[in-house]
Amino acid sequence: MDSEWLNFLLSQLRLVNYENEYETMLLLFDKPLPRKLVCKSAQDLLESLKRNENYEFSLKDKQTRIREAANLRKEGNDCMAEKEKPSKMLKACRLYTDAIFTAIDVDVDNVELSLGYANRALALQCFGYYQQAYDDCECALEIGYPKKLYPKIICRQAYCALQLKNAELLQKHLNVLENMHLNENFRRQVQELKANLLKLQDQTEKTLENVESILKNRDSQEIVNAFGEIGRYMRAKRLIKQNELIFAERAAALAPIGSAVQLCNHCAKTSFIPIPCQHCRGRVVYCSLACFKAHKNIHLYECSAYQMQLFAHVGIAHLALRTILDNGLLTILDLLRNKQTTEEIWTSLTDGGDVWSNQTVAYSESLRMVSHLKKMTLEDVKVFAAVSHLIVVYLSRYTSFFDLLSSKHRFDCNWELIVAALILKHIGQSMVNGHVCTVIRPKLFEHYTLTEYHLLNEDLWEKPWHLRRGYLHRFAYIDDVATLNLPYTSICNHSCLPLFQPKFSGRIISAYAMRDIKDREEITNCYTQHCRTERRQTRQEILEKSYHFVCKCGECMRPEGDDDVNQFHQYRCDNEKCRHVFVPQTTFKWWRGKTSNGLQNINVLCDVCGSRQKLEWFYDYQKLLTSLNSRLTRLRLYKLYQSLDEYLLAFNSCKAFMASKAVQEIFKFFNNGSLNEEDYENLTRMIKYSLEYEISTSGSRCISYICEMTYLWDIIASGKWKYEHKDMNSVFNESLIVLDDEMFLIFSNYYKDYLVKS
């Protein structure tokens, strides 16, 4: 955030005592002169952001970008000449995707962009991504595909509809084709499609799982309104069995973390083939045409902000804005129609107001979420208020949002003040109730650009959703991809011992019981590190700083204190005169606390003799990691790892980290023939240790366990280690439950393709 602008705004916001969001924002709207000054300041900042981005984007003129897109498309066409090779088809898809991103934002009638979509559609169809190919055809037609080529693209759509077993769509496209003047080749294709349509119409249609019924099924829990410190909470109203789905919730709103181009901005999928917005330079993408259209009424008010990269500067305020735009304020205008003043509208939206209390309105769930702005410092509140004001100025100057609000309401009200106060309110709520969507993502060792998507990586796939043997370990990485507004999940109070395991699949969270939950027992969530991974004092400090409460859960009140976590951090003193077992009093994961001198300033002290540990074994390990392409280096690493039991006892966190990191580095050579049986034996030993450590600390139903498991599955798939089918079936049925739907499909196919058969 621009410091000069922020300092000026903070000087104008004379907040002495925080009362509520409305009164705070009123300080920036109330007096004419300060109001003009702060608006002018915000407008200048927005114009500056816009100029900077426009300058960067204009470094290449439109004709240059069109030529580059055409050249990329030609490279893709060259790959398609060898379309019998799956890797060539995917490389073509990747090149066509680059062509699409290069050609966007050129003209309204963009022929080059339409050709990019049309070419990618053929490549996707040939590889077997039929729905994505169908969507690309539709995009090509909407953007400006040459009319003389319509028979080609519509035949392509009809073929995809056939493969998708969609008789209605197939009939629709055949009707269009029959009214066209077609050559002999196209007439023959139409006859073949007609014959297949008759067969398709005889088949029984599959029924889709009713997702809505799952989301509404909350028969195992109830919400209790309690007085005092605890407030609302969730409890079981019957016995909930271990691994049972407790509840599922669709996020009321989501906002990307970091770049928005690796996440569908509507449904939050991360495994997809992108359809970018044409107008904000490809900074917002969607997984399908359906999501593109469903998000249109939200992106209408965000497109200009993405053009100037505004959301890169406002942090959690983006989620606050999305809470208003995504089935938020516009859905309750009818309930506000009789409110004659700005104050009346605000009162109805706050504690006890008629809209706030309405149990049938989805947005009211968000309005009722807890906020701790009153417990925050005035300086923090002022910063959040400044950001809220900036977003309102953006909406006023660059969108028609306030024109729409005014046209829908018959009384003259200050909608800018109301929206600014709502943004501030939702910021406060998101600070203590926002959830992070954490998923498994692939990490490719080669350098790749933001416009490359793992479904199009030619090194990974045999066919759609089926990986090549030995490539599952590429999916051994965890990433935070979005912040979510989950009003129902937010009702759960905190406990330092997790009670349910969340599964994030797109914008739907599913909560699975980690143990049996008794009738009338409170259902709690864990907001931070749990009691097996972090000390009580550290947990307490995090909770008090971020969530503004002192935790009094069962784990924090136990007299045993930190015994649960200390068992994973036992060291034997390397002082020959001592050799006692101790638990470090410094930060547990000291190996992550790097300074300008590496780890040289880290003090790990024995609490018996006071000796500073030399940690020579760890420094030797770090050096070995840099040259693991050498077989002799790997042998030295294995020998060092086997000697760690002298210093690291039981299931030790540091040893688990060293095992995991070593496996990760050695697997860079897994598919190039460098490793031998001795390597596989040692790798398996380290992987099994990491897995046992994960089970001991977090259980087998967590994505960190699954990440470690990918390496073992690749070794099994390559025939380098034998296992019991019974054990593997148990892992498959229990652990993978927390994967998102697309990732589950990838892992499930890998299991069936290579492990069941091995």
UniProtKB/TrEMBL annotation:
A GO CC annotation given for this chain: cytoplasm
Keyword field contains Coiled coil: yes
Keyword Transferase: yes
GO biological process, one term: methylation
Listed InterPro entries: SET-MYND_domain_protein, SET_dom, SET_dom_sf, TPR-like_helical_dom_sf
Keyword terms of this UniProt record: Coiled coil, Methyltransferase, S-adenosyl-L-methionine, Transferase
Chain coiled-coil ranges: 183-210
Span of domain SET: 212-528
Protein name (Swiss-Prot/TrEMBL): SET domain-containing protein
Gene source species: Glossina morsitans morsitans
Gene3D superfamilies named among the record's database cross-references: 1.10.220.160, 6.10.140.2220, SET domain, Tetratricopeptide repeat domain
A Gene Ontology molecular function term of the record: histone deacetylase binding
